[in-house]
Design a protein that fits this description.
heterodimer; A: four-stranded antiparallel sheet; globular
Chain lengths: ~110, ~110
């Protein structure tokens, strides 16, 4: 069974940093693009970042470029999102997803003083 | 960036009625379009991929059609569990984009 389990969310002050993790199981993690998507309170889904197999290609939404860094560890079957210089606009549930079909349950990031 | 425009923003229908949701792309996405259902506190659920292919385990009440710039999600006869928010997503071009969502509510 394919599973994606996010962790690392929490409350952080504006300007702070947080690192999200996503643990994958049930499929050959190393051969897939993996993605981060977020949903701010009361808002729609927003794609955040994607990383290809072998980390050859990395993409970011303009809203996070220069502040967020996506990475993966295929040996650990894990995806990461390092988030720096956080603002209130980054407050959201962050999902790890293997498009189009598998998504985690999400982890909540709250940026507030 | 490809903009996906969903209409209507809100759709009020009764159980048993047919729902038709639209997603229009600002430029062609070929058939690289998916539809998701989102309920509070739950992960997005894939309904349709590649415009018209039903995802595993999805009831035949859900169907997708279209290609290029105009796409439709149809729910043939609404069940109570179908009332949720629906999003389209394109993966034809970077950046990946989502529509703003259609809220399907009980009339």
């Amino acid at each position: 069974e394919v599973q994606l389990v996010e962790s690392g969310g929490g409350l952080v002050k504006p300007g702070g940093s947080l690192r999200l993790s996503c643990a994958a199981s049930g499929f050959t993690f190393s051969t897939y693009y993996i993605n981060w998507v977020r949903q701010a309170p009361g808002k729609g889904l927003e794609w955040v970042s994607s990383i290809s197999d072998s980390s050859s290609f990395i993409y970011y939404a303009d809203s996070v470029k220069g502040r967020f860094t996506i990475s993966r560890d295929d040996a650990k079957k894990s995806l990461y999102l390092q988030m720096n210089s956080l603002t209130a606009e980054d407050t959201a549930v962050y999902y790890c997803a293997r498009f189009p079909d598998y998504w985690g349950q999400g982890t909540l990031v709250t940026v507030s003083s | 960036e490809i903009v996906l425009t969903q209409s209507p923003a809100t759709l009020s229908l009764s159980p048993g009625e047919r729902a038709t949701l639209s997603c229009r792309a600002s430029q062609s996405v070929s058939s690289f379009l998916a539809w998701y259902q989102l309920k509070p506190g739950q992960a997005p659920r894939l309904l349709i991929y590649d415009a018209s292919n039903r995802a595993t385990g999805i009831t035949t009440r859900f169907s997708g059609s279209g290609s290029g710039t105009d796409f439709t999600l149809t729910i043939s006869s609404l069940e109570p569990e179908d009332f949720a928010v629906y999003y389209c997503q394109q993966r034809s071009h970077w950046p990946i984009t989502f529509g703003q969502g259609t809220r399907l509510e009980i009339k």
